Every structure is written in structure tokens, then in C-alpha cells.
Amino acid sequence: MLNYQATAEEVKKIGKFKDWETIVIKNDSDLVCFAQSKPVLQSPKKNPREARLFVAFRPNKKILDEVSITAGYEFNNQNSITAKSGKHKYKFDIAQEKFAWIADSKMEKKMIKTMKKGSRMMITGFNQKGSQTIDHYSLLGFTKAYSTAKKNCS
Questions:
Q1: Domain-wise residue ranges, the chain
Q2: What sign results for the dihedral spanned by CA atoms 143, 95, 44, 124?
Q3: Contact 14, 20 (CB under 8 A)
Q4: CATH topology of domain 10-152
Q5: What global pTM score does this model have?
Q6: Residue 2: which pLDDT band, with cuts at 50, 70 and 90?
Q7: For residue 83, which of 106, 63, 101 has the smallest C-alpha distance?
Q8: pLDDT grade for 6, boundaries at 50, 70 and 90
């Protein structure tokens, strides 16, 4: 007979704000709050992917304003993963499996400021074969979803 200890994980959708939603995950030892969105447009269109843009708070690990993305595939290491909104451009430095992060917390804060002011963000990534994908995210509702996530984890 298998004997394992399950951690009770509670996932709560706190709110939906236009194109963004706020989610809180609580378990025995951790609390994570994040705002997330799905792309409103994906290119190429023929291969729908499970892509997401996140801003997370992990107070127990002293992580605030963590910007991350997934494009629904494993990124390659040869090409840059970038986010662009208006004239602002940001580079994701760390790619691991299907996720990417920005290493510099000052850069994350700048990107969040851009997201609060902007209306759309484009994330460009490249899969293992080197094919480019572009995910367009609406930023409508971002500020409210972000503030709600921050409030629930402070």
C-alpha cells in the first residue's frame, strides 16, 4: 500500500477583471497570489497553445512582483524571449522548461508600470525548432487584478 502525505492546497479565484483574473493558492507552508491572463491573439494561429502571462507574489519566499510567462512549449536557448508594449521592450533572462522569468527585480517593476499604463503587450518566443511565436495580451483589467493579488498576499 502506498503511503503519502498530501498537502491540502486551496486554489481560489478571487476575481475576474476584464481580460485578467486573480488567483490565490494556499497550502500548509506557502501562499501564492497572482494575476494572470491568456493571449487575445496568437501567431501562428494554426497551433493554439496554453500561453499565459503572470505577475506573482510569494510572501513566504519574499518574492514580490515576479513576472513570468509560458508559451505552452519549451523555449530554445538560442533566441531571446521578449515582451513589448508601445516603445517599451523587456527581455526574459531565465527560461526553464515551459516558463520564462526576468532576473532583475527593477526591470520587473518597470515592466509592471508599463503594463498598468499600456493596453496591449506582445510576447515573442521561439520553440525548440526555432519557430517564432507571438502572443498578444490585452492589459485591460491588469491594474485591478494586480492590486487584488498584491493585497491578498501582503
A1: 10-152
A2: positive
A3: no
A4: Immunoglobulin-like (2.60.40)
A5: 0.91
A6: very low
A7: 101
A8: very low
